Amino acid sequence: MQVPAFIAPPDDCLLLKSDHRRWLEKTGLALLEFGAAAEHPAGGYGWLDTAGHLDPGRPVTTLQTARLTHVFSLAHRLGVPEAKGKVEHGLAGLRQLADDQYGGWYQGQQAPGATTHKHAYSHAFVALAASSAHQALGTAQTRALLDRAIDVIDTHFWSDDMGLCLESYDRDWTKLDAYLGANSNMHTLEAYLALCDTTGDVRWLDRALAIAETFIHHHARRHDYLVPEHFDSQMRVLYDFHKDQPADQFRPYGLTPGHSLEWSRLLLNLEASCLRHGRPTPSWLLEDAEGLFAAAARHGWEADGQPGFVYTLDWDKRPVITARRHWVTSEAVGAAHALLVRTGRQEYADWYATWWAYIDRHIIDHDQGGWLHELDEASRPRARYWPEGKPDIYHAFQATLLPLLPLAPTPSTALSRPPWAERLARHP
Which CATH fold would you assign to the domain 5-426? Predict the structure, then answer.
């Protein structure tokens, strides 16, 4: 099968110029060095403070451990020294965080009073980590983890009837939460793309397409391509969900422009993956990706008159939480890159340059390392809505890596296959 040209940028693409590539690679390696300090002596990965030191007062979480296992799996593919040991440390941590009695994974270390609910969001990242680790190491242990993750998400979280993933259960899987969330389904879609490449099973693509059709082509399209986040069990939008606590860390009130950007890029990854595997590829994937991007840029960027993306909007598209979060701009450059590769339009190159300039000036901490997680309206560091620290390098590292790779296959697969492995090797 001949791969369509837009899946990968041409050799003379602006994004592959040697000076930009070197800058991306240098920035990514600095993130890996910073994030390596999160290795927790008790297993898994913990929380880093603003100076990049492990905070022993915060518990190890499944989310953090899975994300860093995924990141260091990619780093191992890139030939980063000591990355293999970081992957193995993460895998050991995920085994410790697993519920051996009822299956699945806890949210984190089981300290007294810790929640025992099983969430689709964290399980999506376990599946992503297992897929990337198996691509990186290919051992019996990584295969066992991959099979275990697939069994859990297949058995408990996927709903064939609804064409989406369910949100959360209590520990023994007997009580299902009536809430349904777009965010957990978005990251499930991301994991499904990786599972398809790792296992060769195209049912993951069919499920990913069903998720995209439900949350984006049906709901986001009807809301001017700003993604409704919260739903009841019948997939009715909960417009007032968390209106009384709008800054909730994982389920904020209203609309989140950063998620429109993240969905935009993932739709193009899905389109390219479907073409690569010979699956049906509806034309609305590109149309909706462009609509999501345009809405986020129009309503999220400088929405309060200051540079940067506001975090959330109300249903009249007015800013609610005006904090600047690092992950939003990270996803913005990924979406701009994907659309530039897909369409060749100059406006996406301009946005790409604008947002990298903002990241370099305001978000990258050139003094202490890592990326600042929250900025105020004047793009100054603060920690009002997000706890102080820099634990997350997942969004930032992928922002530095994705412009070096094609839209499909997924990164862990792309890094192992020519010509991309050869191209990366030619650009030290």
Answer: Glycosyltransferase (1.50.10)
